[in-house]
From TrEMBL:
Organism expressing this protein natively: Marinactinospora thermotolerans DSM 45154
Top-rank taxon, per record: Bacteria
Protein name per Swiss-Prot or TrEMBL: DUF202 domain-containing protein
Pfam families: DUF202
GO annotation, cellular component aspect: endomembrane system
Domain DUF202: 8-81
UniProt subcellular location: Endomembrane system
Record carries keyword Membrane: yes
Protein keywords: Membrane, Transmembrane, Transmembrane helix
Length: 123
């Protein structure tokens, strides 16, 4: 009988880090598209123009949240020796991101979704 090779302890945390990075890149791309949208001429279709300055603060807040999360995930990744052990106790790895990061990302994406829906209905 052949024995299965041992599990690579750094593989799962690395996939988790990559998924965080992909998620944050998609959030950043979505915000940039949201901020860019008012530069198109919407006055002909709807009769009302939504000022780009109204969308800019929302975009900057979500971009700041994405930046904070990216810095947090990268620092935690390095502090846990690339996800191989917990930073404080040396025990098996903890999640790459803290729970507050999950709530912050979820809240900012939900808030962006509500703002996009409201501007789509009103504008």
């Amino acid at each position: 009988m052949s024995r299965r090779p041992g599990r690579d302890p750094g593989l799962q945390p690395e996939r988790t880090l990559l998924s965080w990075q992909r998620t944050l890149i998609v959030v950043i791309a979505t915000v940039l598209l949201y901020v860019r949208d008012p530069f198109h001429d919407v006055t002909a279709a709807t009769g009302r123009a939504v000022e780009a300055l109204h969308r800019l603060p929302i975009g900057l807040v979500v971009l700041a949240v994405a930046g904070v999360l990216m810095v947090h995930v990268r620092r935690r990744w390095r502090a846990t020796d690339h996800g191989c052990h917990d930073d404080a106790t040396g025990t098996p790895p903890a999640p790459v991101a803290r729970p507050w990061a999950l709530f912050l990302l979820s809240g900012s994406v939900a808030a962006l979704g509500v703002v996009v829906a409201v501007t789509a209905v009103l504008g």
